[in-house]
Write a structure and sequence with these properties.
This protein has helices spanning about 1-45, 50-55, 120-130, 155-160, 185-195, 200-205, 215-225, and strands spanning about 60-70, 75-85, 90, 95-105, 110-120, 135, 140-145, 160-170, 170, 180-185. It is α+β, with helices and mostly antiparallel strands. It has one domain (about 30-225).
Length: about 230
């Protein structure tokens, strides 16, 4: 009887674990799909899109859809998304990332922001693929220029390791990322690619991995050209 009970408990635990894993995997796929949508919309914004002259210099791109700011007096900003790095004329497999930032001062309510970070040089890439990087302290970040004819002309834009683009309620707006912590989401990466491969090796193409359809759609969106303001490519 005890053996039978133990078997029942074991099977139940396995079912719960499998269900939890499937739910998390579905959440990962959703994160990729949302990142693809945000990326495409922000790149193709008619008047305030990311300039091609800046985009073409980026070595990696981080997309965090629906970064949420919550709090009353004390609060924080939280978001999860994906990052992909260039490999010649293509883009590598996306790795999952997390961003968190505490805040203080008078505030109330909930606000959602879509965020795109362009990593502009190898030093920024190296820092970002460490266990955790603090934006503004460990790695410099500045608001990126917007508009089809804009370029990274300011001192901050030219020297920053990362350029940020944010969109709130359909409008481009500035966002203060100083003090935010950005790090690989090890659990999500393990679900997608297995336990024995690091985020660094995935991002830099040092480990062969198999991409899902959602991951391929994201890298495809990175590679696509941007529509002109007339709507014609």
């Amino acid at each position: 009887m005890q053996i039978r009970k133990a078997m029942i408990v074991g099977v139940a635990a396995l079912l719960v674990s499998s269900t939890s894993f499937a739910s998390s995997a579905n959440s990962d796929a959703k994160r990729l799909n949302e990142s693809t949508t945000v990326l495409s919309e922000m790149r193709n914004a008619p008047d305030n899109g990311i300039p091609a002259s800046v985009w073409n210099k980026a070595q990696c791109v981080v997309v965090i859809p629906d970064m949420t700011k919550v709090g009353f007096i004390f609060g924080g900003e939280f978001g999860s998304g994906v990052m992909s790095c260039r490999r010649g004329n293509s883009w590598g497999a996306p790795v999952f990332m997390r961003l968190s930032k505490g805040s203080a001062g008078f505030q109330a309510g909930i606000k959602s922001t879509d965020l795109v970070l362009l990593v502009m040089n190898g030093q920024g890439v190296d820092k970002l693929l460490r266990n955790k990087v603090t934006l503004g302290a460990d790695a410099s970040v500045a608001a990126g220029p917007v508009g089809r004819t804009a370029s990274a002309g300011t001192d901050a834009s030219m020297t920053a390791e990362m350029l940020s683009y944010s969109r709130s309620k359909g409008l481009f707006a500035g966002v203060d990322l100083s003090g935010g912590s950005l790090s690989p989401d090890e659990d999500a990466n393990a679900r997608m690619y297995g336990m024995n491969v690091s985020a660094r090796n995935i991002a830099l193409g040092m480990a062969p991995v198999r991409m899902t359809a959602e991951a391929r759609a994201f890298t495809s969106a990175l590679s696509q050209g941007v529509r002109a303001t007339t709507g014609v490519k």
